[in-house]
Amino acid sequence: MKDSLSKTINWSLGIAVITLVLAAVFSVVSTALLNGVTWAVGMLIVFLIVLTGILFDIIGVAATAANEVPLHAMASKKVPGAKQAIFISRNADRVASFCQDVFGDISGIISGTAAAAVVIQLTLQLGHSDSSAFHYVVTVVFTSVVASMTVGGKAFCKTFAIHYATNIVLQVGRLLYTIEGKLKINLTAISKKRKSK
């Protein structure tokens, strides 16, 4: 029990540190991308951030809903990415937490901050101050659109992720397989250590 609690605490602290680093990186990158661009390009960047959050939400949901049995059958046939997909399925709680809590929440926060910056650019380019009624209306409309896209997109994609969970996890496994091959690293080494205990 104590060992399990210790692992949970270590995982939570690790996730907190990773979130801190990734949030800082995404914030710097998004600020750099938005700096000096038109409001239309800024809107496109905001929507790309939202889509990134939705994509990771799909992966998180699929990891928890995937059926491991067909993945084992594919792994026995040496289908590329099947072993990595099994790793994702076996670590579904951590994968879901990483994808949905870390990337999902970061993209939500960053998209909100970026949306505010785009609204300021738009109002200034149209000759309005950031304290005008026009700025207030644009802020409400744009923030509402971003929020509805985020929530609506995630709601729709959750159903999609559940229905096609195993195939989605396999595709992510194939991506990990490619990355491991290109970079000559083993991202799924943890699962092998667990199996040997």
From TrEMBL:
Which spans are transmembrane here?
A: 12-33, 39-66
Q: Which domain of life is it from?
A: Bacteria
Q: Which UniProt keywords apply?
A: Membrane, Transmembrane, Transmembrane helix
Can you name this protein? Answer: CNNM transmembrane domain-containing protein
Organism field? Bacillus taeanensis
